[in-house]
Design goal:
heterodimer; A: 325 residues; alpha/beta; 6-stranded antiparallel sheet; 6-stranded mixed sheet; 15 strands; 28% strand; globular; B: 206 residues; Rossmann fold; 4-stranded parallel sheet; 9 helices
Chain lengths: 325, 206
């Protein structure tokens, strides 16, 4: 698991050093406090070469906006203050290894600045074998705040169903939110017999997932990605999106089970106080309180942060202190 | 009333232990004609106060307010409470802190332990002392002490004697709600007495 990070001159962060990440982490902060940028930094650490794609997912870019990613407008903002001539860097500590990635805006032949996302340029670990291991990409997945199309979900949903306990976990969480749900599966549907995800809610016909409701759709999306992609680190932006606050405890029970069962470290963002309280209550019930809150605070042109563990989260909730920073 | 608005609407913040305290300090601020300027945050009780305070005094709050004050009860260890608060606030704010003294900077910070820096007790202790020292209350004071002594002899000892005294007093003069805060709202306490001067002087600088 990732235990510590150090961002330097990356997006809105002049210098951010945080440590003590548990298995499930909830990132909170006001609008424009750097929550999505924080996830982007982690995505760079997990997979430097794949980060551009994950940036696009997190920023929910439509095709027309993808061009911006390759334009000066987007690339420039990867570095905190490009005018200072700095490069951005992100470092992370895993149990046995440290990874350091530099992101270098660079003029290409067309005189456009592009972020250079090299393979880890410096790895330090206790021996050569570990170093070799650390060089591998850490499988990761992204669930953006905006829901993806049903077709985009098919791959990860199918994979989640094929994993041991995956189907049981996903369906039990959906059933907790909507007791009518009996089964979720992939089946041909519609006049052209196209493959899609369908839900058995006790009607005479199976209902396409897109017709069941936004909350269930969101849960299928979140759990399919966490379980189906075999990721070791998952980034979920605005995890409560589309989910009624009374269902959040059931969602967190599923997140806790999935994270533990499939050994996924989760970094999710939220704007919801109810989401924080529900997560705390769920993890407080478990044998291990494997949950923390990462608070981000914007201060002028910098962003600071801190990690809160159980004692402080519990005290804050008891004291009616708003943890959303 | 300051509690109706959000903390974001205020430039000055006062942190206190519980809701009854909040109402009391709101009245003290109103006495100073500062109640519209200050957001009062209560921590919903006395448990884990220092942890709550550490979480509450986050970088975002420190960056966005002009002054933040903290008033906590001494309970059984005034020196220990002062030492803990001094260390905690100095660590959070990265500056020297001293009991009852506002430290300049952004934001201005100060903390006060009540009834005072040497005595055990709570805000009720300070209020009781102010009330009982008024010569016009001498007879009533004896009634309350006699009542509490009688209850103690019957096996009912007040956990916090001064809270018991204040509640007993208010049970008669503000019977709708015999707690400190509502009592203050009902103008049961004389804020113009000398005993309140250190507290009011502290609040006046907020």
């Amino acid at each position: 698991m990732l235990t510590q990070i150090d961002f330097q001159s990356f997006r809105g962060f002049r210098r951010l050093t945080l440590e003590g990440f548990p298995r499930v982490n909830l990132v909170v902060g006001k609008n424009n406090s750097g929550k999505t940028s924080f996830l982007e930094g982690l995505a760079v650490l997990a997979n430097p070469g794949g980060a551009p794609e994950q940036f696009k997912q997190l920023r929910q870019m439509e095709q027309s906006l993808v061009m911006h990613f390759q334009s000066i407008q987007y690339a420039t903002w990867v570095v905190h203050d490009e005018s200072l001539g700095r490069v951005a860097s992100v470092s992370g500590h895993w149990k046995d290894a440290m990874r350091h990635v530099r992101l270098v805006p660079k003029k290409n032949a067309d005189d456009v600045i592009l972020p250079e996302l090299p393979a880890p340029e410096r790895l330090q670990s206790s021996n050569a074998r570990k170093q070799q291991t650390a060089e591998l990409v850490i499988p990761s997945c992204v669930v953006a705040a905006q829901q993806r199309s049903p077709d985009d979900l098919l791959g990860s949903f199918g994979a989640a169903m094929r994993r041991r306990n995956g189907e049981e976990l996903l369906e039990s969480r959906l059933r907790a939110v909507d007791p009518r749900i009996r089964k979720v599966r992939i089946a041909p549907s519609g006049p052209h017999r196209q493959i899609e995800i369908v839900v058995d809610i006790g009607l005479s016909r199976l209902v396409p997932l897109s017709q069941v409701g936004q909350g269930i759709y969101r849960l299928v999306e979140v759990f399919s990605e966490i379980i189906g992609t075999e990721a070791k680190i998952a980034f979920v932006d605005e995890i409560e999106s589309g989910i009624h606050h009374t269902c959040l405890s059931d969602v967190w029970r599923g997140i806790a089970e999935a994270a533990s069962e499939f050994e996924v470290q989760i970094f999710a963002t939220t704007h919801s106080h109810e989401c924080i309280e529900a997560a705390h209550a769920v993890f407080a019930e478990r044998d291990t309180y494997d949950f923390g809150i990462i608070q981000l605070f914007r201060e002028a042109d910098d962003i600071q942060g801190r990690v809160l563990q159980q004692e402080k989260i519990a005290a804050a909730i008891a004291g009616d202190i708003d943890l959303r920073a | 009333m300051s509690t109706k608005r959000k903390i974001e609407d205020y430039d000055k913040v006062l942190a206190v232990e519980g809701y009854s305290d909040l109402l009391f300090y709101a009245e003290a601020l109103e006495f100073l004609e500062k109640d519209e300027d200050v957001y009062i945050k209560d921590f919903n009780g006395a448990s884990d106060l220092l942890v709550k305070l550490e979480v509450f005094l986050d970088p975002g709050l420190l960056a966005s307010k002009s002054s933040i004050g903290v008033i906590l009860d001494a309970d059984t260890n005034p020196h220990g409470r002062i030492a803990s608060l001094t260390n905690l606030m100095a660590r959070i704010a990265q500056r020297q802190m001293e009991h009852g003294v506002w430290s300049d900077g952004q934001p201005k910070l100060g903390f006060l332990v009540v009834p005072d820096s040497e005595s055990e007790g709570e805000i009720e202790t300070l209020v009781w002392n102010a009330w009982k020292n008024d010569p016009s209350n001498q007879t009533s004071e004896k009634c309350i002490e006699d009542y509490l002594a009688c209850m103690a002899n019957a096996g009912h000892q007040a956990t916090s004697p001064d809270k018991g005294r204040i509640s007993t007093l208010l049970a008669v003069i503000n019977d709708e709600d015999p707690r400190l805060g509502p009592g203050a709202r009902a103008n049961a306490f004389p804020f113009d007495r000398d005993e309140f001067k250190p507290l009011l002087a502290f609040l006046d600088q907020l």
